[in-house]
Design brief:
Radius of gyration: 20 Å
Strand content: under 5%
Strand order of the largest sheet: 1-2
Structural class: mainly alpha
Mean pLDDT: 75
Low-confidence stretches: 171-205
Helix content: over 70%
Largest sheet: 2 strands, parallel
Number of helices: 10
Order of helices and strands: HHEHHHHEHHHH
């Protein structure tokens, strides 16, 4: 439960940052609206927001140029799973999942934004290069540079791509009605007894998230 709460906390921070960035983007929308369609702008904005949030979490926050003797580097794969951390097991697991989850939105929006990235190997290469660049910079700014972080980030990007691939073709006219009929009534469940509240809410949220991902992927790809 602690791990889930911490991961959800990261998502909440991300949504807040996107909301703030969207406010600053409004003037650019009006400047570009005659050249770039709204949907395209939304896609590019979300891509840029994902990149900015990742860089903020991994590079911009806590930047501090350090001498060579104080730099930390780990080139031993899977060391994160074999060594204990001073911060404790729970923090270790949550940070591991965070490294994966952090790149999942980028892995999803990247092939949506760029047609040439709609192949698995293309997205994988770009996610790996971006993660490598982050780890390379972290080595010089007082943060640990770790091959495990590189692999987990890349895995997150690949996972995001698989969500894109599944959602792109995962919804049809027929399944739209199935989703609506199956999940919308569960909204009422959230107001029932305490035990059914959690079940109904979780099913409703999961259904709506899948519906949104599927619809957005198809819409953006068709217009792109």
């Amino acid at each position: 439960m602690v791990i889930i709460e911490e991961i959800l906390g990261y998502f909440l921070i991300g949504f807040i940052l996107i909301a703030v960035l969207s406010v600053f983007y409004i003037p650019f929308y009006f400047l570009l609206r005659k050249k770039i369609p709204l949907i395209r702008q939304i896609v590019y904005f979300l891509f840029g927001a994902c990149v900015f949030i990742i860089l903020s979490a991994t590079v911009f926050i806590g930047i501090n140029i350090v001498p060579a003797g104080r730099r930390t580097l780990n080139i031993i794969p899977f060391r994160v799973f074999t060594e204990s951390w001073e911060m404790g097991f729970i923090k270790k697991i949550s940070q591991t999942f965070a490294n994966i989850v952090m790149f999942m939105p980028l892995g999803f929006i990247f092939p949506v934004a760029f047609k040439k990235a709609r192949k698995l190997y293309t997205t994988t290469i770009y996610m790996a290069l971006f993660s490598f660049l982050i780890e390379f910079v972290q080595y010089f700014i007082g943060r640990s540079s770790d091959i495990d972080d590189f692999m987990l980030n890349t895995l997150g990007g690949i996972s995001g791509y698989f969500i894109f691939a599944a959602s792109k073709n995962g919804i049809t006219k027929e399944t739209e009605f199935v989703i609506i009929l199956e999940y919308c009534p569960n909204i009422l469940d959230t107001f029932s007894a305490s035990f059914s509240v959690k079940c109904g809410l979780s099913r409703t949220i999961s259904g709506l998230i899948w519906f949104f991902l599927s619809a957005s992927a198809q819409l953006f790809c068709k217009t792109g």
